[in-house]
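Q: Okay, next protein. This is Ion channel from Roseovarius albus. I've checked the sequence twice, so it should be correct. Can you predict the 3D structure?
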Amino acid sequence: MLTQLQSKIQTLYTGSERISVNFRYGLILFDFASIGFFLLTAPLPNSPVLITISLALGVIILLDTVCRLWIADDRLDLLKKPYMLADVLVIFSVFANPFVAIDLRFLRILRGLRLVHSYYLLGDLRRQSVFFRNNEDAIVAANNLFIFIFFCTSAVYELHFSAEDIPHTYLDALYFTVATLTTTGYGDVTLTTPSGKLLSILMMGVGVALFVQLGRALFRPTKVKYKCTSCGLLRHDADAIHCKHCGATVAIESSGKD
């Protein structure tokens, strides 16, 4: 019975049938909804209603994570993936937050890493969306930058502004984050504690790298990812039928539509 259940779950997560694809898109809609909830409630004080909704979302995320681990061929390797580590942190923040002195809600923003980093979801999007296929690198880079900005914003707000009773709003935290990431640094909003300075250094270092990644993805020639079976070349023109490196035939997945 457990084997049959595992097989059905694996089909939902990895299958190519319409029900499997729809299930994975449903997970993405859930991710958007949960991330939106986490973002909108980040500046709000905890209340019984928010805690209840957060716990309900946490249960769903926990079930999703358990299912992914259950059907994985190599569970340890899966746990090493950045998006799985992010999910573990999200689950921890949801269930531990009511019992710890530090507000851990900023960790929940990391759920956004799941959006476009699922192998099978990427395959679905490449097959069904010409726009995604032609702009995959830019979309992934923009998603990473977006998540990092709001992760840092929430961390600044929860760990520094709120914890230290600094009279700034969530918008001030976002303003500080963007100013720091772009190395503008007007100086009107600052973090003066040692931990705040370390966070600022981290934001500048990682943020600049993410901006560069996004810029490179936006301005270099459009390519699609497909590994040539003969020479291993990973990037090809969207309409390529032969590998430019070795001349072998390539079968780039396409919906057949322009």
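A: Here is a summary of the prediction. The longest strand covers residues 224-225. The beta strands are 224-225, 235-236.
Q: Noted. On to the next one.
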